[in-house]
Design a protein that fits this description.
This is EAL domain-containing protein. The chain is built from 12 helices and 9 strands. With 275 residues, the chain is α/β, with parallel strands linked by helices. Bound molecules: ligand C2E and calcium ion (3 copies).
Length: 275
């Protein structure tokens, strides 16, 4: 079946040919990326809006390929389509815990993004448990960020896994909250701890537009369900003040810190001031 398509390339315009070729290069590059040591992680602090304290870090994957930093927006999609994300995602989980472990004091968490493909694997819960045990962290120090859409793909199965993870003590955050189309009614059937308000609602949010109402609605929903709320993509003082006025619990964004390699965490302003 592999050869079948080859001759057809000539039927396409050069641009499509180029796109296919680039896609193929991405795919074969991704296959080698772990072994070739081309992946690394950066970490972005998450902050308590009342106290200003760092309450966690989100791990974000970076791919340096042929001297080019390829954005996750480009390669994660290819990794998901090819299921390479299952291997890559596991590498991220393991490495993120390992690198941030020295910073996991008190209630601080390391938040790791989990792709739907990872969550769907039957051995997912077990692999999380193994990672926790191998690194000897508290299960409550790990938070998994799962998008709304990922949960809707296979609701019953996902719900069951989240329950098992929460039973272990692992925290669950719903990422990009508000951008999917999840029925709010189903949220109460899910074992989650936190809602993560998508950046798009934070960026263009002032008193006159609906985005602020969406944030407000998310906060009151969370209050009713006993969940925490974190706002992502916070860039300005105005946004911080708005979120504080609305009694949002946590925030993350360039205003506070950009994502940095673990070795640079101690140099971040937020730590320099306090310690
Ligand atoms: P996300 O999970 O919503 O991550 C937040 C993105 O917003 C990150 O982009 C982060 O660098 C960026 N960001 C943080 N603060 C600000 C801000 O104040 N302003 C702006 N403009 N952007 C901000 P990044 O690192 O490019 O990641 C993009 C997406 O790629 C992530 O969105 C996530 O969906 C995916 N991703 C990244 N790492 C992983 C991973 O290890 N596994 C999986 N499955 N997906 C990942
Ligand atoms: Ca995330
Ligand atoms: Ca997000
Ligand atoms: Ca987002």
């Amino acid at each position: 079946a592999k050869d079948e398509g080859k001759g057809q390339f000539h039927l396409y315009s050069d641009d499509i040919g180029e796109a296919l070729e680039q896609r193929y290069r991405l795919e074969s590059g991704l296959k080698q990326a772990i072994v070739a040591n081309e992946f690394y992680l950066v970490f972005q602090p998450q902050v308590d809006l009342k106290t200003g304290e760092v309450i966690g870090f989100e791990a974000l994957l970076r791919w340096l390929h042929d001297d080019e930093l390829i954005p996750p927006g480009v390669f994660i999609e290819v990794a998901e389509e090819t299921r390479l994300i299952e291997t890559i995602g596991h590498w991220v989980l393991d490495r993120a815990i390992q690198e941030v472990k020295p910073w996991l004091i008190g209630d601080r968490v390391i938040a790791v993004n989990i792709s739907p493909k990872q969550l769907q694997r039957s051995d997912f819960v077990r692999s999380v448990q193994i990672a926790i045990e191998q690194h000897g962290i508290k299960p409550t120090s790990l938070e998994l960020e799962i998008t709304e859409t990922a949960l809707l793909t296979d609701f019953e199965n996902s719900a069951q896994k989240l329950a098992a993870l929460q039973e272990m003590g692992v925290k669950i955050a719903i990422d990009d909250f508000g951008t999917g189309y999840s029925s709010l009614g189903r949220l109460k059937d899910l074992h989650v701890d936190k809602l993560k308000i998508d950046r798009s609602f934070v960026v263009s949010s002032d008193a006159r537009n609906t985005n602020q109402k969406i944030i407000q609605a998310t906060l009151s929903l969370a209050e009713n369900l006993g969940l925490r709320v974190i706002a992502e993509g916070v860039e300005t003082q105005e946004q911080v003040e708005m979120l504080q006025q609305m009694h949002c619990h946590q925030m993350q964004g360039y205003y506070f810190a950009k994502p940095v390699p673990a070795a640079e965490i101690s140099g971040l302003d937020c730590f320099a001031e306090k310690q």
